[in-house]
């Protein structure tokens, strides 16, 4: 994808949790520009600060220094411009699929009829027709994450921030969910920032993959994934795909070895 305007800018972001002897340096000098409607993956070894970076972008965690700018404003707190999806299922168990998806709209005071219409649109987009009135406990993990994606999209955010959203799913479901997310993104273009430690997942979906170092997380390398779209699973055996994968595996391996030796 040709990069359009910058929609989000991470400048000199550093994060230290705790103080003195208990201080943990999670992130060090992160600089990153994210293009409008770009699909960006953040890839790195466990504990390198990926979630911390995403939470800072989401406005859930404050950086120790540096700033994140979106739409000309510094991010200081969560906002309706940023929808988030986490690995753990975060649906409201007492609400049906439809009501979960409508939740943010109701908070905003959108009238009932319009809420229902919007929910129906996203239920269709994530393939959950017929499950409108089901409760989360009756859904599989993949279905719950589809509801979570639909719920985030229903608020029409500019950014969709996903933190290992398919991490708890089996391999087959995970692979189908990757295709579903790309499909949703192509039909409802947003800027996506997707955190994962899965090399194949990152290259399969993203326009660019930001590979992070082990803790403290820094940007080690940015891989431009120049593979045609739309993509489906066949591309995973393509020579170019395998070349990107080899490069990313090499980078992550270097970092994992470093982390083991410190
Ligand atoms: N609230 C917190 N208080 C103290 N330390 C924290 C906190 N959150 C994260 N950390 C530490 O910061 C470092 C980075 O954590 P983070 O969860 O951002 O990494 P990650 O790359 O997302 O890890 P994983 O892939 O294992 O989920 C880790 O050493 C972690 O223990």
TrEMBL record:
Transmembrane segments: none annotated. Keywords: ATP-binding, Nucleotide-binding, Transport. The keyword Transferase does not apply. InterPro entries: AAA+_ATPase (IPR003593), ABC_transporter-like_ATP-bd (IPR003439), ABC_transporter-like_CS (IPR017871), ABC_transporter_ATP-bind (IPR050166), P-loop_NTPase (IPR027417). The keyword ATP-binding applies. Residues 8-239 form the ABC transporter domain. One of its GO terms (molecular function) is ATP binding. SUPFAM superfamilies: P-loop containing nucleoside triphosphate hydrolases. PANTHER family: ALIPHATIC SULFONATES IMPORT ATP-BINDING PROTEIN SSUB, TAURINE IMPORT ATP-BINDING PROTEIN-RELATED. This is ABC transporter ATP-binding protein. It comes from Metallumcola ferriviriculae.
